[in-house]
Amino acid sequence: MQIQILLQTLVVPFFISVIAFRYLDERHALAGMVVAWLVSYFWILGKVPFVPQTAEELLWIFMGVAVLSRYFLQKNTFQYSLMGMFLAAIAAISWPVLSYEITVQFVLEMLLFVAAGSVVVVFKCRSDRPALLVVMGFTVLSLISALSGSLLIGQLAGSVSGVSAIYVLPEIRRYFRQKQMQDKTFSVLMLLYLLILYIARVFAEVELYVVIALMTAGLFGLFARKNTLLILTALMYIVSVAIMYSLGSDSSYY
């Protein structure tokens, strides 16, 4: 069981992304990463959900449409499309709760995620280590989700770390600098980060202050141009994990 989880979450997506990194140019980098992630994603779910029944089954549609938009839409149009897809995904994830009961707190939390998504779409990442930010964010989100009692959400988040890990190399070694993670790829992955975080909040009931800390760290990373700010972002993630660990994990799994 543990070996299967490791293969699904890290090993398989990493090696597929290595192949994509080696043979695809920058224009096709996002498509290669998404294909690598979808292999892991469908394996984790145990099926291909052509008709999504649960929140996490919606994610592949978001990523698939994002890739198609990358090829067929201009930069400004792509941003509007990306925001529209994000809003649609938030609405679809929220619908089971909203259809049962509408509360002020839930609506405010939903709007908080919408605002965070707007920041990701509107502002360009200023950090010269975007892939490192993505890997840090999804790794911490994976740990938080697992500690909260959702192995499934934890695996889905962890698989994005596996896919993105190869792109950390260009940020460390000058030899690979011609294949850095592009802004559009970073934006798509950060929106996916927010969607999985939202699912973790709504269905795995991760504590709100932990969610806010993870969201703040992810958005703060957008502007972490200097190493000092990058270290501060990492510390925010570490504190989030420490808080969640101190709360203890749930015995039930979503």
UniProtKB/TrEMBL annotation:
Its protein name is Uncharacterized protein
Q: Where is the signal peptide?
A: none
Residue ranges annotated as transmembrane are 6-24, 29-46, 58-73, 80-98, 104-123, 130-147, 153-172, 184-200, 206-224, 229-248
List UniProt keywords, sorted A-Z: Membrane, Transmembrane, Transmembrane helix
Q: Which organism is it from?
A: hydrothermal vent metagenome
